[in-house]
Amino acid sequence: MKKIINTENAPAAIGPYSQANLANGVLYISGQIPVDPATGKLVEGIEKETHQVMKNLEAILTEAGMTFKNVVKATIFLKSMDDFAVMNDIYASYLDAESYPARETVQVSCLPKNVDIEISMIAHQD
């Protein structure tokens, strides 16, 4: 059975989707962009954007009773691969080196609201 996960500590969906769905112990988190849920405004600059995206993901994981240690897969979309090194360092700072998820990072031509980064994740309950 599917359970919709929703928290006010992450940005509300801006389309016909849920922040996350939990099905059979697997949490599918929709792509998060750098919107500050407290203000509803975008943060700017790849450093601030990456931190905000990771905080949004963390809020959804927390709502589902999980942490980044539960994440098994991440997909990262960047507007420019020139931002990869900065993003990668910040991304890694939120994770436990003993439990890094599988991941791919791709450059795309455009993202919602013209942001520089979007990350989606899949996590599994222990």
UniProtKB/TrEMBL annotation:
It comes from the Bacteria. CDD domains: YjgF_YER057c_UK114_family (cd00448). It holds the Pfam family Ribonuc_L-PSP. Gene3D superfamilies: RutC-like. GO terms for cellular component: cytosol. GO terms for molecular function: deaminase activity. PANTHER family: 2-IMINOBUTANOATE/2-IMINOPROPANOATE DEAMINASE RIDA, PROTEIN HMF1-RELATED. NCBIfam families: Rid family detoxifying hydrolase. Belongs to the RutC family. This is RidA family protein. It comes from Chryseobacterium endophyticum.
